Amino acid sequence: MRLLLQSIAKRSLVNSSKRTTWMHERVAYKFGCSRHASSSVDFSGVFPIMATPFHPDETLDVDSFRKSLEFMAQAGTNGVTILGVLGESNRLTDKEREILIKIAVDVSQKQNEPWYIFLPCPKTFRIFLRPIVVGTSHAGTFATAALTQMAQDLGAAAAMVTPTKEPAPHTGALLNELYQKVAAANPGFPIVLQDHPASTQVHMALETIHHITTELPEVQCIKLEALPTAPKIVTLKQLWNKTPAACNKCTILTGLGALYGEFDLKAGSDGFMTGFAFPEILQA
């Protein structure tokens, strides 16, 4: 793949008479794409959930945040997720979110050893070695869509969206509507559907999750944290065998601190997306 793309790069020319723009971008295999293009991310392996460090005065400790991201990259993780529940996302201002996303994307790009090609594409097409997934959940659907757009604009590879607790129980139709609206506002941008009833008090039926994945190609990964996880992984994969996900390959990542990791992997989990302090152990 790399040799093929390098060969293409050598043959790329700039046709100034037609005012063709050839975008100069970092490219590498198995990365996720940026906005304006139909994107996909390899949601498999280990995606640590990053904590957000603060100073005693409650301002962001950006130096510690950058160091923790660099550590995860050096540990060989497949990507990272920021601004999740562990990342204190509900306690941050929009400006603080912007700062953290920019740092994460910057570290992702610098930790790679990119090689370059010219792409004959009228719109930006970027690919990252270690995708940055950004939690964009909010009590309001419009706000969730807007935070997802912010993450996309700042160079993140995907968004993680989980429904929030409401006075009345969520129905399957309402949950489907949530993801439809977020996807419609950010077409082609990958979404991780997080099912974590312990923090949201929202219980999603597997049939609802399956329906969402078959309707929306943007939903490319399920962060499955509803107990019992292992049998639910088996059931969801069986549902996909009958009716495949719209993105062709929707993966399942294990959370809950990898507490049930061994059982989940045997059931067919594609990896981990969790706040586990030792990523090397999960990779082993």
Tell me the major beta sheet: 6 strands, parallel
Q: Radius of gyration from the CA trace?
A: 19 Å
Oligomer state of the chains in this structure: single chain
Average pLDDT figure: 84
Number of strands: 12
**SSE order:** HEEEHEHEEEHEHEHHEHEHEH
How many angstroms separate the termini?
27 Å
**What order do the strands of the largest sheet run in, or round the barrel if closed?**
4-7-8-9-10-11
**Number of H/I helices:** 10
User: Outline, from the CA principal axes?
Assistant: globular
**Unreliable sequence segments:** 1-37, 113-128
In terms of DSSP E residues, the strand content is: 15-25%
Structural class: alpha/beta
- The portion of residues assigned to helices is 25-40%
Provide the fold topology.
Layout: H1 2-11, E1 23-27, E2 32-33, E3 45-46, H2 62-74, E4 80-82, H3 94-111, E5 115-119, E6 127-128, E7 132-135, H4 141-153, E8 158-161, H5 172-185, E9 191-195, H6 197-200, H7 206-215, E10 219-224, H8 229-242, E11 251-254, H9 261-267, E12 271-272, H10 279-283
